[in-house]
Description:
Oligomer: single chain
Largest sheet: 8 strands, mixed
Amino acid sequence: MKEKRSTGPNFRGKIGRNAQRQKREGKSFGHLILPKDANIFKEEVTSGKNRIELDILPYLVTQPNHPDKEEGAKEGEYWYRRPYWVHYGVGAENKSMVCPKTIGKPCPICEYRQKQFKDPDIKKEDVIGKPQSKNIYAVVVLNQKDYDRKKIHIWDIAQGNFQSILIDDLEERPELEIFPNLEDGLTLSIRFNEEVYNRNKFAQAGRIDYIERDYSYPESILDDVPKLDEILKVSSYKEIEAMFLELEEDDVEDNEREEPEEEKNAPVPRQRKTVSRVSKEEPEPEDEPEEPEDKPAPSLSRSKSSPSRRRREEPSTKTLKEEDCPNEHTFGKDWDDFEDCEGCELFETCGEKYEQLNK
């Protein structure tokens, strides 16, 4: 048989490689790239005495700059959550983008925000908002008919909608910290309340009960737990800057800077928030709830700033130490995280401390 001579484009091997890459990348949800066969859990409001019961499983940390590495989340070790930060409504396309500080790298949006904050000609209420703190967990959902309890699910939720309540409980009862253990761990029975922010309804954990398990997970299950570090889509400095400034990527200078050696080796600050002492029967509304997938967030661009909430109109000139917050929060660290931050006479100086801590 005479071999045919190709005169047009040759796709041999290319489409097959492309198909394999698509299979590996699976589903893309904005700032997350999930495995094709991933099972997703989404919290819902519970009613009456109903609770959502789930087990949180540890996952293998595969990146060196995990925000919790000082507490044990080091590369090659197991940890129970993958914290990260996300900028919503970036550019004209209102995209969501993982903040590079999630992996210990500089972020052009955060840098621009710092410049705005220091510019005396820009009103504080016009400074773009800080990135939202979120967490990803690997969970087994035990009592919901729509979720197979034999499968591991990926759960992505805003910090204040679950983790803040968990932190509060762990501070009061440190013995609960065994909950992710395979052998003697605890099942979390969670009541989710309906909350509203900017007319958007969302589910927020109002109470967590901890139940002793009468079963254990085999160590082999760890091989099936998704690698949570690898599902975060962290774009390059240049890509984020181009999207943020609404420019073509080729028009942006290649100014992705390398951090000094001492900064590279420095631990990444742990962005841990502690909720105020409110009744878990009536939880405090989450400051920055998870943005609905089907509703674009306000644009974050140089020409279209999204106003940050609860800014004081008149700056304060008083300087205080970290322990001097009049509302018993952590000065600088908890800036603009609580309802009583509104109108506080130390709002500006606390904000300046926040910027210093997050450089």
